[in-house]
Amino acid sequence: MKLLVSPSSPEEAQRSLAADIIDVKKPSEGSLGANFPWVIRAIKAMTEKPVSAAIGDFDNKPGGAALAAYGAACAGADYIKVGLMLNDPAAAAEVIEGVVRAVKDDFPEKYVVIAAYSDYERLGTISPFDMTPLAAAAGADFAMIDTGRKDRRSTFEFMDTEALTRFTAMNRDAGLGTALAGSLVFEDLPVLKRIDPEIIGVRGMVCGGDRNATIREDLVARAIAEVR
Q1: Known catalysed reaction(s) (predicted)?
Q2: In the 3-class helix/strand/coil scheme, how is 154-168 assigned residue by residue?
Q3: Contact, 32 vs 47, CB < 8 A?
Q4: Cα–chain-centroid distance for residue 37?
């Protein structure tokens, strides 16, 4: 299980370098808010570790999602993540297919991560379980769960351990890796180890509990130690 930490700036990234994957996002723009390409480039230049970039929470705008994915890949991201803020499976498939093609046509070595939300019922968006077969069919690499509305409610409040374990197993059967995120806390780590996704994503955990605060190097070190 790898630890992904999500800084919003090169200064925060400098404090996140103990993580396995450095994830570039802009928390003020949503769950998977996209940051600027020059921020991705600057953070990529700081480390030899894999860099991930969120490109946004997309409704039915496959062209916009594809172009954003291509831009993130060109800026240096090794993992490109898109969130599905929609509820129509056909529209979700079009977004996923556009993102995968935009990345894989020119950058086949890079990873595409498709995210649905643990709180999909309150958002009225596609279920993670309905997203997985679409992601697999399109040739994505990872299926992810995050919280879509950032109000400090955890993924575990919306999906229990059994559901997350089933999601992880479903992904493995489909040839996908699993990434789990969404207001995770240190106390969740033992359960997450049992679920055994390939990646867990955190920000608030290493900001002292508030994703809008600043990443703390000591908490990143604690998180990576406990994941190990």
Answers
A1: 2 D-glyceraldehyde 3-phosphate = 4-(hydroxymethyl)-2-furancarboxaldehyde phosphate + phosphate + 2 H2O
A2: CHHHCCCHHHHHHHH
A3: no
A4: 17
Residue from 7, 10, 30 nearest 19 by CA: 7
CATH number for 2-227 (one of 3.40.50.300, 3.40.30.10, 2.60.40.10, 3.20.20.70): it is 3.20.20.70
Distance, in Å, from the CA atom of 176 to the CA atom of 212, rounded to the nearest integer, reads: 31
* Predicted confidence (pLDDT) per residue in 104-152, tens digit: 999 999 999 999 999 999 999 999 999 999 999 999 999 999 999 988 8
**Helix, strand or coil for residue 206?**
helix
The β-bridge partners of 199 are 2, 179
Residue 60's nearest CA partner among 134, 4, 120, 125 is 125
Distances (CA, A) of 101 to 18, 63, 106, 139, 173: 32, 11, 9, 9, 22
**Residues with a known catalytic role:** 25, 81
User: Helix, strand, coil: what percent of the chain each, to 5?
Assistant: 45, 20, 35
181 contacts 169 by C-beta, under 8 angstroms? no
Query: What's the pTM?
Result: 0.95
The parts of the chain modelled with pLDDT lower than 70 are none
Q: How far is CA 50 from the centre of its chain?
A: 13
Write down the mean pLDDT value for the chain. Answer: 96
